[in-house]
Write a structure and sequence with these properties.
- This protein is mostly helical.
- The protein contains five helices and no strands.
- The chain has a single domain, classed as ACP-like (Non-ribosomal Peptide Synthetase Peptidyl Carrier Protein, Chain A, Orthogonal Bundle).
- 21% of the residues are buried.
- It has helices at 3-22, 45-59, 65-70, 74-78, 82-92.
- The longest helix is centred in the N-terminal third of the chain and has 20 residues, at 3-22.
């Protein structure tokens, strides 16, 4: 994992921990690249909207989570992982493009 990916993962972990803290759950959940948003973190669709807003505020309009999830089939959305979001964000940032081989957006 390169530094750009690690930085985005840390940022995403912080955002998710904040979201989970609002519900007073998730204190014992380790958030890794393989953590699923719906099954492991039990995030709702509204949480994904809030998460998308945080990511856009942090990284700018080139990180459009709504556009990303619109490309997913329902089963892919249900199985969406933190790692997939990290790879999407890293791939959208001009300063990180070319630093790491692109992972398919729906790869686990």
């Amino acid at each position: 994992m390169n530094s750009g990916t690690a930085e985005v993962l840390r940022e995403l972990q912080g955002i998710v921990e904040t979201l989970l803290g609002e519900y007073e759950v998730g204190e014992d959940i380790e958030i890794t690249m393989d953590t699923t948003l719906y099954e492991d973190l039990q995030l709702e669709s509204i949480d994904l909207v809030v998460l998308a807003g945080h990511l856009e505020a942090r990284y700018g309009s080139q990180v459009n989570i709504a556009e990303f999830v619109a490309t997913l089939e329902l089963d892919e959305l249900i199985e969406l992982t933190v790692g997939q979001l990290v790879h999407y964000v890293v791939g959208r940032l001009p300063e990180t493009r070319g630093l790491e081989p692109s992972a398919p957006e729906t790869a686990r």
